Amino acid sequence: MTIILMILVLLAVYLIWYTVFRKSDLPPGPLKLPIIGNIWWLAMQKRRKVRIPVALCEVAKKHGDVIHFQVGKENIVFLQGFDAINEAFVNQADDFSLRPDRLTKDIQKQGNGVVMENGNSHRVMQSFIMKYLNSDTAIVEKRILVEVEAATDFLSSEKGGSLDIKLLLSMMVTNIIYNVLFSKRYDYSDETLHKLINNLGTIFKSGSQIDATALIPTFILKLAKNEKMTRAKQETAKAGQWVKDQVIEEIANHEATYNESKLRDFVDVYIMERKKDPKNDIFTLDRLHYVIKDLFVAGSEASSVSLNWAILYMQEYPDVQHRCQRELGEKCADRIVRLTDRGALVYLESTLLEIQRMSNVAETTLPHTTDKETSFRGYCIPKGSIVLANLLSSNKDNRHWDEPDLFMPDRFLQDKAKKNPAFIPLGLGPRRCLGESLAKKEIFLIFTNLLQRFTFQRENENVKHTFRCIDGQLTATPLPYKTKPVKRQ
Question: What is the pTM of this model?
């Protein structure tokens, strides 16, 4: 009886505080409970097996495009729909472009890369990376096409048998970024490549450089702590150390063989920049490891998952696949498809854009924060709030798309639709995806050249595969499927 009375008193005190002292101009959102805030809502979505971005679209119908959550003492704001996202991350970019450093405290003790960095070091490093990735398209194209040829041999050896193509796509994309960074690639049977893919996968599933547990009250973490969480943390640390050792070895080899008159790759260009001013505290060797880690994540996960979706859509929509192949035959015949063909392959490009819109690989942005109390759409966004954009809500925003839930490549054939600003598969504003330019090249060249050489069919032509995602992953990844790559004559 005493416990019940204490609970009722606590609830009464909370309701008084909530009514009298709570800021009245905060954005609306689901019911917040004493102490735990909206943790109950997040737990409910997990129990329902509903992905948070999908659940947010339901919440937005009641509360609008700016939604406030509370996790413990943390304020979290989700932006819904293109208009709100663009207004915050582009029009008010100065207010919303910082990263919350309290989510990366453990990593900052060792050193930051670029994705979660702030201030001048972020601006300088981001500019340097993007300039390099866009500097020599011919070399990037060559590196991608090397993997296309290797994948062609791999698929041809299957002789029309069914396979899970996810691993092949991961090997291709990982080799490309490794080649960009270190001028080196691995054979698809090499154990080191498989270890690299597995360890990067472990790091990515953990949230990469983000420690979301920093938002949750300590007492709740202690209650929830179990052997599974402990083991996952240990596995992530082990994977991170393996990748770090691999990268440090490559950097050491580059330092030993560096030749300023013959720059080979990203690491060489970084070393050259460092040698211009050895006292520069931005281009340090310690930072290089973390920058490379960011590039591995930015340059591999989104591309390989997008390509995985692309093959699935082709086998499930054979008419679309045949139309793409017909256009390839008309424009490129049997020669290798190159980046210069992009403007000519209008239907194929439209198909790729529609697959990216439908699959929504990056459903939400990485967290942003506010360094001061900020006014947005008439609401008060408290200082230090975590701000995230639900990209799914923009790519399927019925205010900007006709029948957004239908797969219709033709929608991108019209000039008006092709320029639709609501299409933001990898974010927008100053914090848009670091590897976007490389990802676009990879996806186009791999998809077109594989489609030119193979037709992808269902393992069982009478059994449709679902377009649902794997639960519990940061990226929207299709459930495992097998495809039959049939070599075209």
Answer: 0.89
